[in-house]
Write a structure and sequence with these properties.
It is a single chain. With about 170 residues, this protein is an alpha/beta fold. The chain contains 5 helices and 8 strands, in the order H-E-H-E-H-E-E-H-E-E-E-H-E. An 8-stranded mixed sheet has the order 3-4-5-2-6-7-1-8. Helix 2 packs antiparallel against helix 5. The two termini are about 25 Å apart. Bound molecules: adenosine-5'-diphosphate (ADP) and magnesium ion (MG). The site of magnesium ion (MG) has 4 residues, from helix 3.
Length: about 170
């Protein structure tokens, strides 16, 4: 589809390195702690990049109810959890296009009173809301991760918190 989402033109980009699992956990915890209802975190990167691991870290910042453990929702496509605010964890890996998301009605969750986290969000790029935080995770040969964030202004204060902990390796 030749449709270009608006975030490519309006979003700031910010890149930093996760050198360890601990870095990813601190990053994710920060994302959970500062999450607000209606936030949508879009996670992309190859298999094994760390999307599910990052979501588990986000959950620690949301303070999930006892006994709630984040697992990969690949087959179910969506799991809902209960924390400070609800967490809607989606995985679009097995979907062919955004039409599948619309048919399942998952797009309605983007506008509910919780945090949406989507693995493989680019599968449904054309129906994502304008105000997203896009998180691209690139796995390097030395097992570090280069993380690139693109976001609309509603995430500015969150990005400020992240930049305090992770200095940018590149900013555009
Ligand atoms: P995905 O959901 O992107 O397919 P997973 O989160 O399931 O990836 O798997 C990532 C694997 O890489 C996990 O086993 C995790 O422990 C490991 N890992 C090692 N270093 C890191 C890091 N810096 N960030 C995230 N995951 C890491
Ligand atoms: Mg995964």
């Amino acid at each position: 589809m030749a449709y270009l989402p608006s975030f490519y033109t309006i979003m700031e980009s910010y890149t930093f390195k996760s050198k360890s699992l601990t870095d990813t956990r601190i990053f994710g915890h920060t994302l959970g702690l500062h999450a607000r209802a209606g936030f949508v975190y879009c996670l992309d990167g190859d298999l094994g990049a760390g999307k599910t691991t990052l979501t588990q870290a986000i959950a620690t910042g949301l303070n999930l109810s006892d006994g709630e453990y984040i697992s990969s929702p690949s087959f179910a496509i969506m799991h809902e959890y209960h924390g400070e605010i609800p967490l809607y964890h989606m995985d679009f890996y097995r979907l062919y296009s955004s039409d599948d998301v619309l048919a399942l009605g998952f797009d309605e969750y983007f506008y509910k009173k919780g945090l949406t986290v989507i693995e493989w969000s680019k599968r449904a790029m054309d129906i994502l809301p304008d105000d997203i935080l896009s998180i691209d995770i690139q796995l390097a040969e030395d097992d570090t991760r280069t993380i690139t964030l693109r976001s609309s202004p509603i995430y500015n204060s969150l990005l400020k918190e992240i930049s305090k902990k992770f200095p940018p390796t590149h900013s555009a």
